[in-house]
């Protein structure tokens, strides 16, 4: 998620955060802290990860991964990510941000330093590697809405893109020509994933 704050990107973490705050009921948000990393399996079945911006980025990804595991609701973990990245040194800000959120630092540190965190990071790696069929992202953040790549539109306006995708979901239900005897399931939210 480091590149969410890159000066070259129009999408800012604040834009994501404010949109989520305004429209939480139409967005199922999934943060995938992996980005343009690569992985290598070790003989002991652990993995080592190499990140585009080095070890600090990989460590930050791992911190976020464990927070997402233990605090799975975006309303819980997104404020921590925003807090971390509002600092010049996100990894250093992690502990104070986690305390501010009332998170259990002991459980989180156990996750970060243990096999659990490594396994969770592997799951995010596998998801990221599968997202575009190339095994690696071309750039980050990679934004998907309902399984469709939406990064170009979302860079221009995350909120507008989300609303258009949600309207599209509802319009598809309302304009279908085929009569159905089954109840129509109203979409609860647009599924948004960022890696």
UniProtKB/TrEMBL annotation:
Compartment(s) of residence: Secreted
Keywords: Glycoprotein, Secreted, Signal
GO cellular component: extracellular region
Principal localisation: secreted
UniProt GO molecular function: oxidoreductase activity, acting on a sulfur group of donors, disulfide as acceptor
InterPro entries per the UniProt record, alphabetical: Interferon-induced_GILT (IPR004911)
Family, per entry: Belongs to the GILT family.
Protein name: Putative interferon gamma-inducible protein 30
